[in-house]
Amino acid sequence: MASFEETQVVPTELLIARVMQIHASVSKLESLRPSKPINTLLTQLVKLCSLPSSIEISTLPNEVQLIRQSLIKLCGIAEGFLELEFSTFLTNVPHPLNHLDLFPYYNNYVLLAGLEHNILAENGVEQPKKVAFIGSGPLPLTSIIMATHHMQTTYFVNIDIDESANHVAGQIVGSDLELERRMKFETFDVMEVKEMLEEFDIIFLAALVGMSKEEKGKIIAHLRKYMKAGGVLLVRSANGARAFLYPAVEEEDLEGFEVLSIFHPTNEVINSIVLARKPMFG
C-alpha cells in the first residue's frame, strides 16, 4: 500500500479515520504541555492535514464535526503551552529577538506574514499607520515579523485576553528599543474593545480567536460595527483538511464587508487568508 506521501490525494475516509485516531490519542494524554508524545502527535496531524485531499468539511457528519471542534480546542491549548514555554525561555536569554528562529514553526510564520503582506499590497494597503493584532499570545511572531520586515513605520497594538501572555510578549519586544517604540500590548476581551477599534487601518484576527463558527461570527460582527469605515480586516481561516486544526471562515461569515481576497495555501502554510474591507458608507 502506498504511503500518504506517495498518494496524490488522500482518500477522505482514510483521512477521517487517521484524524480520529490522533484525536483519541491526544485526548488520552495527561497534559498538553510540550512533551515527546504531544509533539509527535501534533506533528503527525499537521503533516496529515497539509496533504492534498478533496475533503469537504461542511458536509462531514455530526460526530466528525464534534471531533473536529474538540481537536481545534486541544490543538489551541497545546499551541498556547508551546508558545508560552518558548517565550518564557526567550525572556531568559540575551537578545531574544535574535533567537526567534529556534521556535519550531517560525518559518511557517515568516511565510504566512509574507503572503499576508503581498495580499495587502495587492489591495492597496502596504504601509498602514496603525495596526491591531487580536489574539497575539505570548509569542507575537506575526507582529514582530511584520514590523521588522514588511511594515517598518507602522505602529502595532497587540490585543490578547491573557495578561500573563502580554507580559511575557512585552518582555521579548522590550529587548529592542526601536521595536518597543512601535509596539504595545493591551489586555482585553475583543468583545469589550469598541472605540479603540476606530484607530486602526488594518485589524488582524488570529485563527484561534473564536473557536466555534458562532463565536467567530459574533467577533467579526463586533469588529464590523466598531472599526472605521474603509478599514481592512484580515481574518486567518482554514480550508479543507486544515480545518481540523483551525476554524474555517467562509465568505458568508463576513456579512457587511466587501471581501477583497480569499487565499488558500497549498504549501506548508496552514492558515488561509481572508481579506475584507468595511465599506465607506452603509
From TrEMBL:
Coiled coil: none annotated. Keywords: S-adenosyl-L-methionine, Transferase. The keyword S-adenosyl-L-methionine applies. Its EC number is 2.5.1.43. Pfam families: NAS. Belongs to the nicotianamine synthase (NAS)-like family. This is Nicotianamine synthase. It comes from Stephania japonica. The lineage of its organism: Eukaryota, Viridiplantae, Streptophyta, Embryophyta, Tracheophyta.
